Amino acid sequence: MSSIDNLKSTIKKKGGIAPSNRFNVIFTPPDLSLINLDVQSIVGSLLSGGFSASNLINDPRDISILCQEVNIPGRNISTFDHMDFQQSNKFPYTVIDSEVTMSFLLTNDYHMRKMMDNWMSGIYNVNTHRIGLKENYAVDVIIQHLNQQNIPIYGVKLLKAFPTSVNAITLNQEAQADVVKMEVTWAYDKFKPEGAVESALSGVSAALNIFG
Description:
26% of the residues lie in helices and 35% in strands. By secondary structure, it is α+β, with helices and mostly antiparallel strands. It has one domain (16-72, 99-211): Pnp Oxidase, Chain A (Roll), CATH 2.30.110. The strands form three sheets. Strands 1, 2, 5, 8, 9, 10 and 11 form a seven-stranded antiparallel beta sheet that branches. The longest helix has 13 residues, at 111-123. The chain is globular. The model has no long low-confidence stretch (mean pLDDT 84).
């Protein structure tokens, strides 16, 4: 049986307990450009008195800052039973990756909601009922778990990811100054686990895509 001292020693040797509230989410939507071309958003900021020069720039860090919750996906190996010499054994035949959901804060300019509305309209156009080409709407998404020094300790890259569901937003007159959040569900081809260095490099590369 392990003692408290042994547990403390092991935790210290492994660099401490991983904090659940330190993470990064990095992706660049297909139509997002460095310059903010949303005229309605700019006018709204002017009318509300909250306009500044920063409103003209789409900062890729805003997405991670507004993301309040995300799950690192799990992976299950599917098996079938095979009877061999009166004994049943399990054999793997495929893997199933779990869904990924993210929760975002909604700001007064509805930045994240408008971003997802535009993205999903490129996946399926509700007016023309046409489906877009996957190469035009799927992007890689980086999820990083950070340590207390905000350095990646583990990460996953969702390959060819895109939003499939944006939850309804509930407004309530009885709620006093409640924070409004939006939940997004993602589909992707598969995820790739990344170590600390690889995840850091992937994050830098993904963030720099906006300058392209």
